[in-house]
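Morning. Coffee machine broken again, so started the prediction first thing and wrote up yesterday's gels while waiting. Chain of 687 residues, entered below exactly as on the submission form.
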Amino acid sequence: MIVCITEKPSVAKDIAAILGADHRFDGFFEGNGYRITWTFGHLCMLKEPNDYTDSWKRWSLGSLPMIPERFGIKLIEDPGIKKQFSVIERLIAEADEVINCGDAGQEGELIQRWVMQKANCRKPVRRLWISSLTDESIREGFNDLKPQADFNRLYFAGLSRAIGDWILGMNATRLYTLKYANNQGVLSIGRVQTPTLALIVNRQHEIENFVPEDYWEVKTLYRNVLFSAEKGRYKSEQAANEVMEAIKGTPLTITDIATKRGKEAPPRLFDLTSLQVECNRKFSFSADETLKLIQSLYEKKVTTYPRVDTTYLSEDIYPKIGGIMQAMTPYTQLTAPVLATKIPKSKKVFDNSKVTDHHAIIPTNVDPRRAALSPDEKRVYDLVAKRFIAAFYPDCEFSQTTVNAEVGQVAFKATGKQIVKPGWRDVYARDAANDTSDEAATQDDNAQQVMPDFVKGESGPHEPTLLKKATQPPKPYTEGTLLRAMETAGKFVDDEELREAMKENGIGRPSTRAAIIETLFKRRYIRKERKSLVATPAGVALIATINEELLKSAKLTGLWENKLRRIERGDYSAEAFIDELKQLIHQIVINVLSDNSHNAIEISQANEKKPRQRTKASKPRTPKPKIESLEQIKCPVCGNGHLIKGRTAYGCSEYRAGCAFRLPFADYPDTLTPDQLAKKMKSTKKK
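Came back before lunch.
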């Protein structure tokens, strides 16, 4: 009997239908020599501190750092999970062979390995490795099952990631909570979560501290074309006015005309991050919403495996391109030009060296009309479909014209761009007309000017204009721009080639970044204002409190991510990675415990609470209403702000708006709880 273990019941059902296991039992399918069962994602987790020793049950600085001699796993405490695991355990015990049919990625490998370890699997194991859930792909996968050992490095990388997150997360969270939280709540710190929060907080500081500077631009209109002074910005109004005076009444003369032909290649195929970015830009979908939608499309068999970080296809996909396009019946008009000729095979699309476990996200050979797609699923599928079709269209050819001119001694320049052959842009012609996104609205109008036939030496009157402008602060992160920042370890990179090269040093993985952002929302460290991500006071305070750069540096976290990828490739060891983090947490504990600044952090009442310890002798009391957060104490002076804790005093959160309310620690000690502080303020007011 062969036992197949999938990650979801729906996948088990699909595989059972293909293998002929058509008898349904409680927790598995059976037939034709197979039993197909499933997990529900993670059934197991790393053990918690209190599972190792009683001394780690209580939060204590003296017990840090907590480093188990050997990390162990346990079942997640859930009746449904325990019931399904007992089914898997029994089936494995009765099996002759096991086939790992988990999701073909690092997380999927970790989920399955842990379940098999917990079930004490000693049977031969092979691996089903597929990039889509179509019937054809499943059949091909079962005809080419891989040895389990081929994926050991993938498992070691996933295990190293999980253990590394445990070491830093468990220890740093307890360390900073006990040292700085003043018994008000938990300071949640994570290997990827904290650097991501730091990106948002740092951007927020840049915006808040930004001082705008005025500048002036001189432009002039000649034959309905806008020319700009080549000097660009003038820092003083006087200098700009002098230019305006110098060119008044003086004709504009064309001094040079240069036209260059250029080509623009189609945009790259989607990886998960670029799809999330595009969905956020066009539809305001969150990263998590996009991941759920593309996962659903994968499970409905119309798109390929989504948790990928490459924009390339492997060369073995090339023979299948025609069949995929023929199945995309709603897009017949767009696929017809590609199918009418020999399908091009570009290195910008097909490159085995850029594909490891999976290729880019593309449609499958299943007609999307056969799947019951929701409106949002149709939107995401449309993006994937058009990006796929456009990849096989010709380059867009354009003409770039630069016209130089002079007005007296002042040099001017105008540029214009004309599309000569749309090429792949034909795929998006209708979309471009309907695109109302902010990015589309802020396109440089000057670059889109259509130039008349200028003649070198021609001259004539013009209409000069003086424009006063101001430098602008950086824009707040949206989920889309934050995903890009995570992908490139905080660096702004617009070039696709360079961005591709930097992915190895990104923070987090495509499959986990959405969950990290959701965690920051859940813990109330960030909130959303329209499309912008804003750090809450608790989030800002947390980053200010963390004095270890390693815990909040996107660059350094990116280097850890690089090592995890190297573990996958086999040129770095899991042991070395774990040892490095053990040494790191030892040093962090020493550094924080030696910090005598006593800067307690104020935690929002919405954040997680550390469980209280109750002795056996204590009696339960009827809880009384308490003020648990300084945010609940309104400023008695301005009435608009709430109390916050500074270095030497309590003050009003509206201090930047001019409120000078202040309670020195000499009179109101910083050891007071919010409830005690409110009572003391009330009693002082009565006196």
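The two ends are 84 Å apart (CA to CA). Going to sketch it on the whiteboard this afternoon.
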